[in-house]
Amino acid sequence: MAQVGEFAVIEQVVARRRQPTTTLVGPGDDAALVQATDGRVAVSADMLIEGRHFRLDWSTPEQVGRKAVAQNGADIAAMGARPTAFLVSLGCPPETPVSVAAGISEGIGLAAEALGAGVVGGDLVQSDHIVVSVTVLGDLEGRAPVLRSGARAGDVVAVAGRLGRSAAGLALLSAGIGVEGPPDTSTTATSLTALIDSHRVPAPPYAAGLDAARSGVRAMTDISDGLVADLSHVADASGVQIRIDRDSVGLDPALAAAAERLERDPWAWILTGGEDHALAATFASVADLPAGWTAIGEVAPGNGGAAVLVDGRPWTASGGWQSFDAG
Amino acid sequence: MAQVGEFAVIEQVVARRRQPTTTLVGPGDDAALVQATDGRVAVSADMLIEGRHFRLDWSTPEQVGRKAVAQNGADIAAMGARPTAFLVSLGCPPETPVSVAAGISEGIGLAAEALGAGVVGGDLVQSDHIVVSVTVLGDLEGRAPVLRSGARAGDVVAVAGRLGRSAAGLALLSAGIGVEGPPDTSTTATSLTALIDSHRVPAPPYAAGLDAARSGVRAMTDISDGLVADLSHVADASGVQIRIDRDSVGLDPALAAAAERLERDPWAWILTGGEDHALAATFASVADLPAGWTAIGEVAPGNGGAAVLVDGRPWTASGGWQSFDAG
């Protein structure tokens, strides 16, 4: 890494990538220039730290890059916007193989390209551990932003995307499952592998987010801290109480299989597991739900009690993953 | 830090800050929304690592924050744009005093506010060393972006802002000068202190960048790697040779004093010192130079030789600071 130098790596990975037409000035100058046709730009940023948000013995560098894009892209989708451009600042120790920095950048580039977005800039610096800092820009295409504060009593609560899979995949990896050994093609092993893949590269329901924004969604958020925690952000911002029931959420058979294998409660993954980057939203009526959305509860007036009730009771387990609580 | 939690710190520092009218949706939702009235947004990102880009025994947390804003804001200024919004992702070890994270955020907030820009989002995560990752958005206000590739043979080369001061300040700090002891109010000590302050908080010539953009500047860049290195980027992008002369650049008396004190060559600081975030540009004629710009040379046709000549010769010292070469 030290020999090759930052410019070579950046240029190698970024410059050869095709830019969408929304990239007016791409990487290589002091700044990039991105189209924001409707006169506004949605923007969000997240930082991933090696050993905390990813492990290179559990994920390939490309998977780390793809995960960084998913995490950031979901924030834009949760506003009802479409990602247009990513910026990536990468900190690497000098002994980092070039293939790792290039692989992370490649994963970011491929995932951005799949979204029709460009990778328009960033930075590469020397650090003690690998740090991936991503910023995403998005285009509302003339629509109003979908905020957390729009939920109203009487709304239907719905989710798009999968829940608990990333947490289950992490639990499997932490138990040493799926890390090594020959591939096991049994049905159970295949579904456990799928959970691990969900942890490595979450798949936010981007299209469902755009469909919701076009269908009069009232409030929306991405599920990064856990369903209960993120719904409580919506409830607090909207001054309402959100009531969900587990029967409507349903139990993913793969989660049931993983829970049995690890002797764990799958509902802890579903209700408090973060990083799936599913979307949760409220709609005025169940008739408004676009394809890909599942009703899981309802919005009640705020009553000074718990922000979120699960099957009529406050969920007493941890409220989801937060950086400084995760140890 | 671990006790207070990320949300408390972020909310404490970010939420109470006044947002400019260009911040349509501020921090606290999945993403922010920033005005981009002319239908385009300029964007750039930089990462600062503790021990490499700043030291907390040499700078206060607030100075680190201000420096991060200057470094990013200068990239936007170099495109001829005005900074509108900053996003800050901060990585901190758990033992970091809250005052450090809050101080960095405060410095970023105050410096952004002075530019009329908002701090609209970011992230706070646990890391092994302090990492400050900043993204800046900017508004071209309908003007064409000013690129590095616009220089033409016959142009005048000019600079705005100061050169070599940050490098001299760093050299002084590295020699133990200005780190401790009672204040020395002699004239020399005052000018050395000013150099150290320039290292701690560079002052990019934002207004001169906007004036240049309005005055038909042809090419512009910020000086972050050193005058010769950054001019060589302009020369390479434009296919020209840039010729500067030291008499036109002039020798800042404070640099002369520091050079005498440290027995160093002040021209190494001026020609290859980075991090001042001055601006370098080319104009069609000297009559086009706005206030605050000083002509230092001329643009010649590209001839396959050195990208930059200083007093007619290639500058043979290191081509300026690069992250992975700085050791």
Automatic annotation (TrEMBL), chains A, B:
Mg(2+) 4 binds at D30, S44, D75. It is an enzyme of class 2 (transferase). GO terms for biological process: thiamine biosynthetic process; thiamine diphosphate biosynthetic process. ATP binds at G122, D123, R148, S224. Pathway: Cofactor biosynthesis; thiamine diphosphate biosynthesis; thiamine diphosphate from thiamine phosphate: step 1/1. Residues 152-264 form the PurM-like C-terminal domain. Substrate binds at H53, E275, W321. Keywords: ATP-binding, Kinase, Magnesium, Metal-binding, Nucleotide-binding, Thiamine biosynthesis, Transferase. Its EC number is 2.7.4.16. Mg(2+) 5 binds at D225. Mg(2+) 2 binds at D46, D75. It catalyses: thiamine phosphate + ATP = thiamine diphosphate + ADP. Mg(2+) 3 binds at D30, D75, D222. Catalyzes the ATP-dependent phosphorylation of thiamine-monophosphate (TMP) to form thiamine-pyrophosphate (TPP), the active form of vitamin B1. Reaction mechanism of ThiL seems to utilize a direct, inline transfer of the gamma-phosphate of ATP to TMP rather than a phosphorylated enzyme intermediate. HAMAP family: TMP_kinase (MF_02128). This is Thiamine-monophosphate kinase.
